[in-house]
């Protein structure tokens, strides 16, 4: 593209620190591509809520829609009631912009330490991607509470699974599996207990499989999936799962693939009816915010996904290669942990040369 318009929502906690490095690397990677990058910063998150009580006004959502893509840092703050920003800003963006594919790759880069026992990956590779449904499940807010605070309180959060919503994300996952060498798709659910939703997911996978005959499928209950993620994660190629299971297994996937500081994601609208949003899997990390202790690599790898999404494949590859080179040498560093900006500088410098 001649111009790339990016809506930037740095957000809370470590969000601004990691987004600064993401943008630094993005500018380095795009230089010479003949693409002008135009960023618009949106002041959304805890500060905005404290100042005005707003989380995501309609006018701002409309302005965000005018961009090609969104880069987001993190949302959530201990000084704001839990859920206000998460629901009112982050999930609102995912739902309103129809980010039905929440793409979360897990890959163990050479040189990166993993908590897995050494024999687990002997002769094998950890390289899979979770296609997490992004617009349904227990996240839709279909619940309520009565008799709150009494011994008779009843609280519900009903998981919504529509044939339309399940089918479109399953088809996307099959498409991704078909494009990968191993062509394997694992459905992760819990149909032994959550039978209504589980059987819809299972029937949908069976039906869509007919369109992708060269993709092999299997199934794991989510609890068993967490076992295999620790004992044999190389068995996974593409995982498709619902919104909540996907949230949980992708933090585990991040942990085995070198830590939450490396885990990237894309909230993708495959139909391109609205901008997709790229963000690290991690949150605002209040425990280390403002100290330049956060690892910006997850955001930088999210920038690579962003660049690929807009068709800047070479720029995306430059970012990924620079990250891989930086990761390969980390353990050999002098032992002093680098600051957030130092890591961003080092990765940008590898691109700029
Ligand atoms: P978290 O991911 O913010 O932090 C979990 C742990 O990981 C913390 O110890 C933190 O210091 C560490 N960590 C996270 N990112 C790191 C990085 N880049 N480098 C080094 N260490 C890192 O999860 P949490 O503590 O459960 O949530 C904190 C807040 O963030 C909450 O308000 C939560 O709702 C919100 N949250 C937002 C998002 C998002 O914006 N997408 C994702 C998860 C959590
Ligand atoms: C994530 C986060 C969010 C989620 C929260 C903050 C709403 O945990 O992006 O993984 O559950 O999707
Ligand atoms: Mn999460």
Automatic annotation (TrEMBL):
Catalytic activities: (2R,3S)-3-isopropylmalate + NAD(+) = 4-methyl-2-oxopentanoate + CO2 + NADH
Keyword Plastid: no
SMART domains: Iso_dh
MF-aspect GO terms: 3-isopropylmalate dehydrogenase activity
Cofactor(s) of this protein: Mn(2+); Mg(2+)
Alphabetized Gene3D superfamilies for the sequence: Isopropylmalate Dehydrogenase
NCBIfam families found in the cross-reference section: PRK03437.1 (NF002898)
Protein name: 3-isopropylmalate dehydrogenase
Organism: Spongisporangium articulatum
